[in-house]
Design a protein that fits this description.
327 residues; alpha/beta; TIM Barrel; two-stranded antiparallel sheet; 14 helices; 11 strands; globular
Length: 327
């Protein structure tokens, strides 16, 4: 699969953009674990133009992450064009436009999936961003605003006509948020459209290598994005690649190796921000990690782990858990 001149190989598996999740450290670890491409947290065009420090930090890309995409979102042409030009200066391989975020503070203001209610504006923004930058521009969106307006097949053609080089489709409407099941049959219809020549990337509910292989086979998509399933387990890309190659996970990471990756995330999160906020940031990964599932009488330890607000306290709790598991 190629996006412009960027060759991602056959059936690439990518890390989806996720706010407060896909920071530089997590992206790099996912690349090391087999993700073929990674995306930044989504970047507000308005905040980027105002040079808000917490937003501009999201633009930093380590060489080991590449190929990497910066994802931007906004609700008017001029700010999106300016933001795209600023983002391009950070040196990403791709600029991705977020027309899919369903949360109220974004979609409710007309940005993200909110654009699904104003297709002419969506297309104007897309066309203007494509013309404003030299790197390939891609789009991530949803099936439509609600069940009655699943417009993605026609919309995909319109976005292609604007000059985008690939399209990612999350198999839900905005109204679904993250409930129900992703509609991979609808994603397959987008891919099967003979008038569509750009790569189509599918997204939604892929949590195992077996599901990944099945989604590729039934939908025919060129690539697949993995999002929430990677939180707390960046090694999922390693496992998925093994299933694709061998039919099963033939060389799983050891529990000690997995703990080492989580500890690395903690340390790098603290180094990137500070001790207190770095630990707050990492709690989402700790809460989601399957490493802690099935441990007997774990409730009190879990509460303590997710309440720890210093490195020493968290490190002590993790060491206790690791010793219990590995003994």
């Amino acid at each position: 699969m190629k996006i412009g001149n960027i060759d991602l190989g056959d059936r690439p598996v990518m890390l989806a953009p996720m706010e407060d999740v896909t920071d530089a450290s997590f992206r790099l670890i996912c690349r090391e674990q087999g993700a073929d491409m990674v995306y930044t947290e989504f970047v507000s065009a308005d905040a980027l133009i105002r040079n808000i420090a917490s937003t501009t930090r999201k633009l930093h890309i380590n060489d080991g992450e590449r190929p990497a995409a910066i994802q931007i979102y906004g609700r008017d042409v001029d700010s999106m064009v300016e933001a795209a030009r600023i983002a391009e200066q950070a040196g990403p391989e791709i600029i991705d436009i977020n027309f899919g975020c369903p949360v109220k503070k974004v979609a409710g203001k007309g940005a993200g999936a909110g654009m699904l209610r104003d297709i002419p504006l969506m297309l104007s923004i897309t066309r203007a961003v494509v013309n404003a930058v030299k790197v390939p521009v891609t789009v991530k969106t949803r099936l439509g605003w609600d069940h009655e307006s699943k417009i993605i097949v026609e919309l995909a053609e319109q976005l292609q006509d604007c000059g985008i080089r690939a399209l990612t489709v999350h198999g839900r409407t905005r109204s679904q948020l993250y409930t129900g099941r992703a509609d991979w049959e609808m994603i397959a219809r987008v891919k099967a459209n003979p008038r569509l020549s750009i790569p189509v990337i599918g997204n939604g509910d892929i949590t195992t290598g077996e599901e990944l292989v099945k989604a590729f086979e039934m939908s025919g998509v060129d690539g697949i994005m993995v999002g929430r399933a990677s939180i707390g387990q960046p090694w999922i890309f390693n496992e998925m690649k093994q299933v694709m190659a061998h039919g099963s996970v033939v060389e799983p990471l050891s529990t000690a190796q997995k703990f080492a990756l989580l500890r690395r995330q903690i340390n790098e999160s603290i180094d990137r921000i500070d001790e207190y906020r770095g630990i707050l940031h990492i709690r989402r990964h700790l809460a989601a990690s399957p490493l802690f599932k099935g441990i007997p009488n774990f409730r009190e330890t879990r509460i303590a782990m997710l309440r720890a607000d210093s490195y020493n306290e968290l490190d002590s709790i993790l060491s206790h858990i690791e010793n219990e598991i590995l003994v």
